[in-house]
Amino acid sequence: MNQVLVSAPSNIALIKYMGKIEGSGNKPTNASLSYTLENLRTFVRLTEIDGGADLWKPLVREDLEKIDLSEKGQQRFLKHLANLKDKWGVTKNFLVESANNFPSDCGLASSASSFAALTLAAAEMFQKLNPQPWGTDKKTLSELSRQGSGSSCRSLFTPWALWQQEYAQPMNLPLTNMHHICVVVEASKKEVSSSEAHKLVTTSPRFTGRVERAELRLADLSQALQSTDWHMARQIVWDEFIDMHRLFETSTPAFSYMTEASKQVLEECQKLWNRWQDGPLVTMDAGANVHMLFRHDQLKRFKEYREFFGEKFKILAFEGVKPDVH
Ligand code: DP6
Predict the structure, then answer these.
(1) For residue 36, how far is its CA from the centre of ligand 1 (angstroms)?
(2) What residue owns the CA closest to ligand 1's atom 5?
């Protein structure tokens, strides 16, 4: 019985993928840049089966959190597997089992890590069954993963990934092993999925000029990170997520992920920054939670923030050292 077990990390975008070219298999309207969150991972086990169709089930393992995937979510995941099978010319059927190493009730998106893990698991399995010359090429795998869920194409590279058009590539920046805090202010399922958000934002009057704004910020942020101009980087990252959330709030129909608690966390971040003229990069995805990234040498600051926000909110906090993955 052929079986593979693979895991892939999540990632947080500092320049956001928001808006895609309809019918293009998740090709983005602008390039994005992300930092890979090695500690937040999805595990996928793929097993060849005799049955007449592919199946999904939660992966049950003591050290992992069981995923409760909706019928629609399962179909989307299996459709991605079907696309990958087509690409390799594989006709066998498989049981897909998946689980996260982070709680599924914390409102953290797992589509990036889960689609990346499924792509990598399929590649490993299919290379055994029907090897292809491009079958282990990261660029090709990133492109394939993108077709399942856009942001997953960045999860194949670490620590930095730059996604332009078809696929992501690693980006060489001096900042590595950053510390990460996610303030979990809202754990329930999002009312507007990020796939829907991509469509809705195109109705915002602010979508005009969005591509140019994102591309300009990408160039400025790359330069700021290259030269470790932390103040500049922080400002650009902040402006970028605010820009994305304004798109949500000015779409037709308008929607918002920001809660009072998110606003409170953002205010506290601003106050702490003003007091110390130092602190983390702060960003939000299409959700209410607030992410913070600290340079490796800001360990003391990271611990202060962890204590400060941990007193009032549920948080996930990771020191920037690579985890052991089994
Ligand atoms: C706000 O990758 O979840 O997190 O391609 O439809 O699956 P689909 O969308 P998805 O969008 C993520 C959007 C974002 C920003 C980002 O990660 O760049």
Answers:
(1) 14
(2) 150
By most ligand atoms within 8 Å of CB, the mutation choice from 17, 29, 35, 76 for ligand 1 is 17
d(CA 150, CA 112): 8
Q: What is the pLDDT of residue 321?
A: 83
**Structure confidence by residue, pLDDT tens digits, 272-301:** 999 999 999 999 999 999 999 999 999 999
**Structural Rg of the chain based on CA atoms:** 19
Which domains are assigned to the chain? 3-170 (3.30.230.10), 179-318 (3.30.70.890)
Which pLDDT value is given to residue 326?
A: 62
* Average pLDDT of the segment spanning 132-160: 98
Ligand 1 midpoint to CA 13 (Å): 9
Structure tokens at 302: 């990271």
In the predicted model, is pLDDT for residue 106 greater than 80?
A: no
DSSP for residue 316: E
Q: Please name every residue paired with 154 in a beta bridge, in sequence order, or none if there are none.
A: none
- Cβ 289 under 6 angstroms from ligand 1: no
Residue with tokens 């490993």: 124
**Nearest in space to 81 (alpha carbons), one of 137, 167, 149:** 149
pLDDT of residue 187: 73
Q: Tell me, using a 6 A CB cutoff, whether residue 214 lines ligand 1.
A: no
Stretch 136-156: mean pLDDT:
98
Asked if residue 111 has its Cβ within 6 Å of ligand 1, the reply is yes
How are beta strands 160-164 and 281-283 bridged, if at all?
Answer: unpaired
Residue 141: left (phi > 0), alpha (psi -120 to 50), or beta? alpha
Q: Where are the beta strands (DSSP E) in the chain?
A: 3-15, 20-21, 27-28, 32-49, 55-58, 65-66, 93-100, 160-164, 167-170, 179-184, 281-283, 290-294, 314-318
Return d(Cα 119, Cα 113) in angstroms, integer.
10
pLDDT tens-digit map of 268-279: 999 999 999 999
